[in-house]
Amino acid sequence: MRKKIKLFEAFTGYGGASWGLKKAKIPFEAIGYSEIDKFAIKLYELNNKKVKNFGDITKIEPEKLPDFDFFTGGFPCQTFSSIGKGEGELDPRGTLFYDIIKICEIKKPNFILLENVKGLTTNSHKPTFDKILGELKRIGYNVQWKILNTKDYGIPQNRERIWIFATLKKIPKGWHFEPKKQKLKKFLKNFIDKKPNEEYYLNKKQIERLTEITGVNFNVKEPLCFDRYNKKIKADKICMTLTEPHHNIMRIVEIKKGNNFRVRKITPREHFRLMGFKDEEIDLNGFSYNQLCKCASNGWDVNLVSKIMKNIYSLY
Ligand SMILES: C[S@@+](CC[C@H](N)C(=O)[O-])C[C@H]1O[C@@H](n2cnc3c(N)ncnc32)[C@H](O)[C@@H]1O
Predict the structure, then answer these.
(1) Residue 282 counted as domain residue
(2) Are residues 162 and 41 in the same domain?
(3) Is residue 62 classed as helix, strand or coil in its secondary structure?
(4) Strand spans (E) along the chain
(5) Sign of CA pseudo-dihedral 94, 95, 98, 100
(6) pLDDT digits 0-9 by tens, 216-266
(7) What is the pLDDT of residue 66?
(8) 117-151 burial, b if ≥16 CB within 10 A, otherwise e?
(9) Active-site residue identified among 77, 104, 225, 295
């Protein structure tokens, strides 16, 4: 029998790695995590009782960590994102991967799974990306990477992320951590709330104003996503990338009710569904709209992660 995975989950958020393992039904034990956001900690702790938080990763002394064989981390992406300032390593949040290397060089887990925005691989951030791959190789790892999109794995969200997998083991010829793509069968309309609270809807005046500014006709035949930034309704029936609420760039447009157009904010529950959660899996009570939507939009697509985890587990 294969042994239980000992997981250290850095930059934990709601715990995308442990959720992925849980959904894939892979036996594991979370031996510690590292997170500094108090609401992410609260959300994580609801589902992972009695796991020790080692706090700010820059302050961790690797020698003091318990042993683990799997390190995961979706290190902060704002500095590499196309919607951030794009300062990369000039921003202190852009250098946190050095802490990953510092920990893994000493603790030498068998497996590492990292994630960031696709922007990390392009143009000005490419040198940082190459440095990350180079550092992982320097400390003894075999490395694979791939840009994966949530919409290719059953969830109608256009979410491209770079995934980096590293292992001390020899990677068998032809093996890749990338899961097999699947044709999308369910679309945004299948993921939205049946009766969202009226507080999420724009009023008549706000919709008129939005029409005036964007020139968009909100008369839709099925619920679709509206991209405020590009002033377009997404006819592909897929949700645009979820981003933190302060960016305020998306709306859901529903079928007209009588003579009234229906345009609204996306609800927290819809965020979590679009990140791969089933409603019964996670309790969202006790958090504000912003806390939940921030956590979800920064999180890992747990549906995709469960598929990646199954592949990784085949190497154990
Ligand atoms: C992109 S999110 C990762 C989300 C996570 N993968 C999930 O599934 O929800 C990055 C997380 O890193 C945390 N973070 C930022 N700086 C940190 C630090 N110095 N030490 C530990 N965590 C940090 C943030 O609070 C945020 O929750």
Answers:
(1) no
(2) yes
(3) helix
(4) 5-10, 28-34, 70-73, 111-117, 142-149, 160-167, 224-227, 232-234, 250-257, 260-264
(5) negative
(6) 999 999 999 999 999 999 999 999 999 999 998 999 999 999 999 999 999
(7) 97
(8) bbbbbeeebeebbeebeebbeeeebebbbeebbbb
(9) 77
Residue 224 to residue 254: CA distance in whole angstroms: 7
Strand partners, 164: 114, 145
Q: If 0-12 CB within 10 Å is exposed, 13-18 middle and 19+ buried, where does residue 311 land? A: middle
Q: Is the C-beta atom of 94 inside 6 A of ligand 1?
A: no
Reply yes or no on whether 225 is catalytic: no
Residue of the CA atom closest to atom 6 of ligand 1: 74
35 and 90 assigned to the same domain: yes
CA neighbours within 13 Å on the CB side: how many for 53? 19
pLDDT at 125: 84
The Cα 51–Cα 98 span in angstroms is: 24
| Nearest-atom index, ligand 1, CA of 14 | 9
Is there a single domain that holds both residue 169 and residue 33? yes
- Terminal-residue alpha carbon distance, the chain: 10
SS3 63: helix
Range of the domain at 231: 194-266
Residues 249 and 305 in one domain: no
Identify the CATH number of the domain in which residue 147 sits: 3.40.50.150
Q: Cα-flanking dihedrals φ and ψ of residue 8, to 5°?
A: -115, 120
Residue 307 lies in a domain: yes
Residues 173 and 28 reside in one and the same domain: yes
pLDDT of residue 122: 86
**55-105 pLDDT, tens per residue?**
999 999 999 999 999 999 998 866 655 555 556 555 555 578 999 999 999
